[in-house]
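Customer escalation, tier 2.

The customer says the design service returned an amino acid string that "doesn't look like it belongs to this structure." They asked us to rerun it and document both sides in this ticket. The original structure tokens are below, unchanged.
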């Protein structure tokens, strides 16, 4: 019974990501001698990468990757 509930919860999460266009952070790495931050997001359509300017304090750029990010391609937008 718990396997069915888990599958239903995963299907609902997938549908929310598919129709909202949001993704959740799955990885990050510093590049360009620590001045850049490459963040990878898992969306319903696959993995999307974003580049940010990075600083440890977050004054210029971002200190960490945002947990959620809206990607440009959404299923129901025309």
């Amino acid at each position: 019974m718990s396997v069915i509930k888990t599958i239903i919860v995963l299907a609902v999460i997938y549908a929310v990501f598919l129709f909202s266009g949001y993704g959740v952070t799955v990885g990050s790495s510093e590049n360009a001698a620590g001045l850049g931050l490459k963040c990878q997001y898992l969306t319903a359509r696959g993995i999307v990468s974003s580049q940010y300017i990075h600083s440890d304090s977050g004054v210029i750029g971002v200190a960490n990757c945002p947990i959620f990010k809206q990607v440009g391609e959404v299923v129901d937008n025309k």
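Tier 2 assessment: The sequence is consistent with the input. Residues 2-70 form one domain. The chain has one domain: 2-70. Sent an explanation to the customer and offered a walkthrough call.
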